[in-house]
Amino acid sequence: MKTLAHIPALWTDISELFVALGDAHRQRILLSFEKGERLTILQIVEASQLSRTAVTHHLKVLERGGALQSEKIGREVYFWVNKAWMQAALQNVLGYIKDEI
Q1: Radius of gyration of the chain from its Cα atoms, rounded to whole angstroms
Q2: 18 found inside a domain
Q3: 3-class SS string, 6-71
Q4: N or C: which end of the chain has fewer CB within 10 A?
Q5: Name one GO molecular function term (predicted).
Q6: 87: domain CATH number?
Q7: pTM higher than 0.90 for the full model?
Q8: How far is CA 98 from each of CA 87, 93, 94, 101, rounded to the nearest angstrom?
Q9: CA-CA distance, 101 to 9, in Å (whole number)?
């Protein structure tokens, strides 16, 4: 057994993704995006049963976890699913499970 003094940065990022995906409201927000779609906070709030404040909180958690990316254009902030990052993170976990790492 090897001893680790620190969790590798890659795994810290992965843990944030699992935190982001570990809530049903955040899962619903992610699943509300169509392929390649960019949505504003208002559009997400309209499709949700949550308040704007709650949606904003969940969007921050999803973005911190790497599941979403955002860009401010004028007064609007657009969000989209960061599938490439999530896929890479989950592949790293699968590689560990398969003992490829």
Answers
A1: 16
A2: yes
A3: CCCHHHHHHHHHHHHHCCHHHHHHHHCCCCCCCEEHHHHHHCCCCCHHHHHHHHHHHHHCCCEEEE
A4: N
A5: DNA binding
A6: 1.10.10.10
A7: no
A8: 16, 9, 6, 8
A9: 15
CB-CB contact of 20 with 26 (8 Å): yes
Q: Does a structural domain hold residue 2?
A: no
Q: pLDDT per residue over 22-43, tens digit each? A: 999 999 999 999 999 999 999 9
CA distance 11 to 34: 28
Q: How far apart are CA 62 and CA 75, in angstroms?
A: 21
Query: 60 is written with which tokens?
Result: 């921050």
DSSP for residue 101: -
Quote the CA–CA distance of 16 and 1 in Å, as a whole number: 26
